[in-house]
């Protein structure tokens, strides 16, 4: 049997990659030389390097701060540095919502999607607009606290300030690397070696992964260096690094993956091969099991090898769980159309980060769900800015079995659209973080979705009376296990009492930055007594938390694993010792900015309780 891929083809591909690497390496070297010459020349050359700070923050997936403030928000990335070169915890920086692995080890943690390519590890992102489109020569990221979270830098061909939207929006990876552990939290200027691209850009995207960090990463500013004219490619070079070639292959695989998906999944005819090799001798189920470990682009490529594997690669059983988030830059209406016939049995679908800037239309999304929504159980749509009221209406009509819906940071959905969610009575998980959901719609959802187990309302600023919401939860949502009320501005001890009395299965409760809660009312002791199953409790920035509250937690919540009391002035080392002795499973204790807990106390507690990560933040 003649080989499917002749050796000549393999050698040709290898030679092509060598030429590409030579071109790129030489160009970088010439660019450095050109920059050095320009810096020593008085007369400004035509292609002088432009240096600019971000003009505007266009989009982001999460931030630690409030929607109505500048403290710890992504908007701090616009303009010149506020903090750098100082190190420490400063409110004038940009901070994402999570860090470490703590959020993956709590009751609200979601199961990961299989088939996620190893090259994709991004957890959050921020998109920055600059004044002038340039061909990038360098990107400087000023990190002021716990650096090392940035894992990818991308450039976009679309000009956010242009009056004429482009026919095609392209994203190119300038730099990508796995998350790394940086020794020490001190400030640094991060300047990775970026790839040269063939279009000018004034839209840069940073993607981060904070899983290896001991605390929140803080970013101060981003500086874009570039030239107005496209640098001329050159083929002069002498050395080729074999590791660079491997890197190129991964890069090509990611960059072309969804183009391959669009083209290859649309192929209906295949070349005639004499046989299917030894695959004819394998059981159908075994081949399906082998193929289940491939990523989606790899399935696309494999489908072109022979009829048997084409049949396997197009089997709907291969698409029971499908995450398209790693390919967000390439997903469009055509992608969804090609996938329709293969996703008729799909149960988990992740479209987070996809479809923005017109890539997915309302009609394209609706057509897909009308064909593929009947078996859908889990739908992830985080940061889906194409979503509108029609989309939510289609979801509720076409997905009768839906149990999990993630609309995190879908801040373009109008308030009235959330009323449709109340029609999905089977919902067990609902994430509305940073959305415009209003009180009337939320009350309707709570009334009709009594099976809810996990609910996130963090940074939902349009809810007027959280006490009324908490009362409805206590009356209707008896199965609630986790509740996120991060930065809810108006809940009081009355709402907490209703919640604790009605939702006694709660294992996770986030009341961080809820300023209207006061320990003197007994709300925290009431929580501790009514919710013995608590594993995670965040009382972040509540200065009224006192020793009595800590001692009640020690006495009643012995399963506690994570506790955040950042900012309290009333907790003593003695009460913390009681808590640590009682709660044997405790793994995270944040006592940052707790005035009675100094570094000496933290060192002592760390020595006596080595299994607990005790965090004490600082400012210099």
UniProtKB/TrEMBL annotation:
Q: Which GO terms describe its biological process?
A: SCF-dependent proteasomal ubiquitin-dependent protein catabolic process
Q: Where is the F-box domain?
A: 276-331
Q: Which PROSITE patterns match?
A: FBOX
Does Isomerase appear among the keywords? no
Q: Which CDD domains does this chain map to?
A: F-box_FBXL4 (cd22117)
Q: Which domain of life is it from?
A: Eukaryota
Segments traversing the membrane = none
Which InterPro entries does the annotation name? F-box-like_dom_sf, F-box_dom, FBXL15_LRR, Leu-rich_rpt_Cys-con_subtyp, LRR_dom_sf
Coiled-coil intervals? none
- GO CC annotation: what is one? SCF ubiquitin ligase complex
Q: What is this protein called?
A: FBXL4 protein
User: What organism is recorded for this protein?
Assistant: Cochlearius cochlearius
Q: What is the lineage of its organism?
A: Eukaryota, Metazoa, Chordata, Craniata, Vertebrata
Q: Which gene encodes it?
A: Fbxl4
């Amino acid at each position: 049997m003649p080989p499917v891929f002749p050796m000549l083809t393999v050698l040709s591909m290898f030679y092509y990659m060598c030429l590409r690497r030579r071109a790129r390496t030489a160009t970088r070297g010439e660019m450095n030389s050109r920059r050095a010459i320009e810096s020593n020349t008085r007369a400004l050359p035509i292609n002088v390097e432009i240096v600019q700070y971000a003009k505007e923050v266009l989009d982001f997936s999460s931030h630690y701060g409030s929607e109505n403030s500048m403290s710890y928000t992504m908007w701090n990335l616009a303009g010149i540095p506020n903090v750098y070169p100082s190190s420490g915890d400063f409110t004038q920086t940009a901070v994402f919502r999570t860090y470490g692995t703590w959020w993956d080890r709590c009751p609200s943690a979601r199961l990961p999607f299989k088939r996620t390519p190893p090259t994709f590890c991004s957890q959050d992102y921020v998109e920055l607009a600059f004044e002038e489109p340039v061909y990038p020569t360098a990107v400087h990221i000023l990190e002021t606290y716990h650096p090392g979270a940035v894992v990818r830098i991308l450039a976009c061909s679309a000009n956010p300030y242009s009056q004429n939207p482009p026919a095609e929006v392209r994203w190119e990876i300038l730099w990508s690397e796995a998350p790394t552990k940086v020794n020490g939290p001190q400030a640094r200027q991060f300047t990775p070696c970026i790839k040269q691209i063939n279009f000018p850009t004034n839209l840069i995207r940073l993607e981060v992964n904070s899983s290896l960090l001991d605390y929140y990463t803080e970013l101060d500013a981003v500086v874009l260096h570039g030239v107005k004219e496209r640098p001329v490619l050159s083929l002069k070079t002498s050395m080729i690094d074999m590791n660079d070639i491997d890197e190129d292959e991964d890069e090509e695989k990611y960059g072309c993956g969804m183009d391959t998906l669009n083209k290859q999944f649309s192929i209906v005819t295949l070349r005639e091969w004499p046989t299917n090799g030894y695959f004819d001798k394998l059981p159908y189920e075994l081949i399906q099991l082998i193929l289940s470990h491939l990523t989606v682009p790899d399935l696309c490529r494999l489908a072109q090898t022979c009829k048997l594997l084409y049949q396997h690669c197009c089997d709907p059983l291969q698409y029971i769980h499908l995450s398209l988030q790693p390919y967000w830059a390439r997903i469009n209406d055509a992608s969804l159309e090609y996938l329709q016939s293969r996703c008729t049995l799909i149960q988990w679908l992740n479209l987070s980060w996809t479809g923005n800037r017109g890539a997915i239309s309302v009609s394209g999304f609706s057509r897909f769900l009308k064909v593929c929504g009947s078996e859908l159980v889990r739908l992830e749509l985080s940061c889906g800015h194409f979503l509108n009221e029609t989309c939510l209406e289609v979801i509720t009509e076409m997905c009768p079995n839906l149990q999990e819906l993630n609309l995190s940071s879908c801040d373009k959905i109008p308030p009235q659209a959330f009323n449709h969610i109340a029609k999905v009575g089977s919902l067990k998980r609902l994430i509305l973080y940073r959305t415009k959901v209003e009180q009337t719609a939320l009350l309707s959802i709570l009334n009709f979705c009594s099976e809810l187990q996990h609910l996130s309302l963090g940074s939902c600023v349009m809810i007027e009376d959280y006490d009324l919401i908490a009362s409805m939860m206590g009356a209707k949502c008896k199965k609630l296990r986790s509740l996120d009320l991060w930065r809810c501005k108006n809940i009081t001890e009355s709402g907490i009492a209703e919640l604790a009395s009605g939702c006694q299965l709660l294992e996770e409760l986030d009341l961080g930055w809820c300023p209207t809660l006061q320990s003197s009312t007994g709300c925290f002791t009431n929580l501790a007594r009514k919710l013995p199953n608590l594993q995670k409790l965040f009382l972040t920035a509540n200065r009224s938390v006192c020793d009595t509250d800590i001692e009640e937690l020690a006495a009643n919540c012995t399963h506690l694993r994570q506790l955040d009391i950042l900012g309290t002035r009333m907790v003593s080392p003695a009460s913390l010792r009681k808590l640590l002795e009682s709660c044997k499973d405790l793994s995270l204790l944040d006592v940052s900015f707790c005035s009675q807990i100094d570094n000496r106390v933290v060192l002592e507690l760390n020595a006596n309780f080595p299994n607990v990560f005790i965090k004490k933040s600082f400012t210099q």
